[in-house]
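hi! just following up on the protien thing from before. the input was this:
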Amino acid sequence: MINRELIRIKVVQLTYAYYQNGNRNIDNAEKELLFSLSKAYDLYNYLLCLIVSISREERHRVEILTQRAEREGTEAPSGKFADNKFALQLEENKMLCEFTQGQKQTWEDHMEFVRKMCNMIEETSVYKDYMASDDDSYEADRELWRKLYKMLIQENEDLDALLEEKSLYWNDDKEIVDTFVLKTIRRFEPKNGTHQELLPEYKDEEDKDFARKLFRATILNADTYQRYMSEASRNWDFDRLAYMDVVIMQIAIAEMLTFPNIPVNVTINEYVDLAKLYSTFKSGGYINGMLDTIARHLVSTGKMLKPMAAPQRPTE
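and the predicted 3d structure came back as:
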């Protein structure tokens, strides 16, 4: 689940913090990086648990209404949503159950929010159409939760505030973790039962090593990489560069030189996007030009053995 996009974000954040906090202990900083990544995986599981908690609350509501209907001799309520097949499979999922056993934080501590989510769901046209439909297939149940997640959980200011109170890491992580939750919903199949696999914390050991190697190369070779920036920036106002821009380019150079299988254009595009997210309005264009110039300088001086496309000439 922790992909390279998230790793790059965390390395940018932790490298900046490394230089800002004055405690230049690279071992401690690396531990903080890996811990920060593990918290993103916790958030992934925690958001899946929200679906389970909402479903449990809905079952509780149906039980109360059913008892009332029995007393009053009226029609019992439908349990279609409360017994949603996808949500029940998720609730019984072995990987998710193992995660929750070791956690102190549960949604039972925030039942007011869970109940509010139930109320919001019951007011949506998506829910009303689902309840009125004769389609009782697993696919319809799963699709309902995909729509509800995108509609009410993916963009939810109250949830963002709650998560920020729970962990300082989670507010920055939620946007990308939401995509992992939606991917998980789409992957669920009834035939897999309780053994349906959730996304692993890391795809493989190589991605975990990517985080460590990128961070260490960035810090340990800082002087060398900044010299490359200076050598390649004769036509750029390097001294007026925002500090975050320097950090981002330093990490980009580390990636170019440390990972021979990652194409140069992929690296440049990734860090241009991060500059737009974390630095100034003009940083994206500036860093794009700088990194292209630096990469060509590294190739021409034999410091980097990667192919690069010829620079495009302006059309007349």
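The chain is about 70% helix and 0% strand.
The mean pLDDT is 92.
cheers
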